[in-house]
Amino acid sequence: MTKIDYEKLISQWHKDRNLIDGSTDKDQFMKLVQEVGELSDSLCKSKDFRDDIGDIMVVLINILVRNNITLEECLKVAYEDIKDRKGKMIDGIFVKEGDE
Fold first, then answer.
1. How many CB atoms lie within 10 A of CB 97?
2. CA-to-CA distance for 78 and 65, rounded, in angstroms?
3. In this structure, are residues 28 and 59 in contact, taking their beta carbons and an 8 Å threshold?
4. What predicted TM-score, i.e. pTM, was given to this entire model?
5. Tens-place pLDDT, residues 19-33
6. pLDDT value for 40
7. Can you name the residues that pair with 89 across neighbouring β-strands?
8. Which among 37, 75, 76, 86 could disulfide-bond with 97, CB atoms 3.0 to 4.6 Å apart, if both were Cys?
């Protein structure tokens, strides 16, 4: 079975629709906020939220392509930031060790 490279397909989709050169990071951030709002609505209503997360990823891929960075790079940076982080959940919020 061939694995589909959705990140590549979505990147091309953006390019084909002039959403890279014809938009800005600020525009895409505003779209991201809208999509996060839709995710919030779905979660609050216990609805299927897979499309909402997918839409968020589509917008994030636009920002990645526009800035010539990869999802892998971003995940690596984030992991390096959190890998040694210690803390615990308090009242439903993760509190970093030392911030308690």
1. 9
2. 18
3. yes
4. 0.86
5. 999 999 999 999 999
6. 98
7. 94
8. 86
Q: Is the pLDDT of residue 98 over 80?
A: no
d(CA 85, CA 63): 27
Q: Residue 1 — pLDDT band, cuts 50, 70, 90?
A: confident
Tell me the two tokens of residue 31.
């779209």
Mean pLDDT, all residues of the chain: 94
> Which residue in 1, 56, 65 sits closest to 29, CA to CA?
56
| Single-letter amino acid, residue 52 | D
Encode burial over 44-54: b for 16+ CB neighbours within 10 A, e otherwise. Answer: eeeeebeebee
Return d(Cα 38, Cα 56) in angstroms, integer: 10
- Tokens 């002039």 belong to which residue? 18
**Extended strands (E) in the chain:** 87-90, 93-96
96 pLDDT above the threshold of 90: no
Q: What are phi and psi of 67, to 5 degrees?
A: -105, 10
